[in-house]
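re: ur question from the group chat, yeah i did fold both. here u go
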Amino acid sequence: MTKIIIFLVGIVLIGFIAWWFFGQHQVQAEQAVVNNDQQNVDIEVKGGYSPERVVLKKGIPATLKFKRTDASTCLDHVIFSDLGIDQKLPQGQVKEVKIDTTKPGVYDWACSMNMFHGQVIVK
């Protein structure tokens, strides 16, 4: 009987892990609002990024304002590989990251351990 319970628990855990890493998850997205020819988006860094997807308008200067409240060292940097940005995010402070919006495209960002991700869409 114990072997059957362990087997069933194992199957449930494998299913959960597969869903967690490979399942479709709802991603919070935010469209930037343009004020005085500038677009700003506030991003909370707490157990990940919120919002995870940011939509920016092409050709209008943009700033992402990351506020890290999470103590995890994984989230102490945000890295935009395609844009050459590696910004340290001190806990409890807002750090601004300027985004080049001259070229439309999709630009991914990640934490320093590549565990948490986000995306900027310029269109």
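okk and heres the other one u asked abt
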Amino acid sequence: MIINMAHGSGGAFTSQLIDEIFVKEFDNETVKELEDCAIVDGSKKIAMTTDSFVVNPIIFPGGDIGRLCICGTVNDLLMRGATPKYITCGFIIEEGADSDVLRKIVKSMAATAKEAGVKIVAGDTKVIEGNGGIMINTAGVGFVDTDLNISSKNLEEGDVIILSGNLGDHHATILGSRMNITNNIKSDNAPLNEIVENLLKEKITIHTMRDVTRGGLSTVLTEISRSSNLDIRLEEDKIPVSNEVRDFCGLLGLDPLYMGNEGKCVIILPKEEKEKALSIIRNSKYGENACIIGEVMAKEEDKALVYIETEIGGRRILDVLQGEGLPRIC
């Protein structure tokens, strides 16, 4: 079936699309009700997020836009210590899209939602003129322990910075796919539930967490540094990058510190707990390559800075990504 404008009209073709693909694949009692909104169990303290996914290509080595949208939404909730519970999704489908491709994406969403322990409870579908593209908007809701407060404002001098794994895989995958570069690099898109849940279960004191997406590690840590008004010092030789991505960066002149990821996070916590936390992360799914990459320092200048001690003994000041970077990476 090729999708056309009638599939977005709200009539019989829309019902067919919803019933045969979305309801069939998401398959839970809430979504089957087909009401204007979902009624679900709540909590005294909730986390909410929203995101839009326009990645190109929509299917890439190691993932697709369906897996990506669930991972991105779930990870945003996890970074504040929330337990992800519910997701809504809005599909904007361009005329000419193939329903087999759409079904593959929806299947991937359903499988990733199951992995992440969330339920897709509501959605919307619009069809517009175009060339067969698919874009997805999500909203996510999670529950938060009333005593939990994870924020960059909690940083303290002496805190250590743990990165959950290798940098640059997703960015290199998307760019390589667009340029038809053959390699073995795959996207790291992954839900980070197990890492966060295991840390919280073991009562690790987490001062802040951030997922390292667009703008890369340098951008994320610069934002944290400015928010906390403390310096951050990194060690270049401690930052994990796979050989394949390092070679890819060398070929194209890219810097892994500014490359986007979709399954990595930084976790900042007291130095007294660093070894226990690192062990927990490395023994969690998607955390096997975690490393301690730096520490929080007292501010040296008027403005809080992030800097990296290079392998040759120099110091390089880092900043947020300047310019566009790679468009349509997520």
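fwiw on the second one: The first strand starts at residue 46 and ends at 53. The chain has two domains: 5-143, 152-318. idk if thats what u expected
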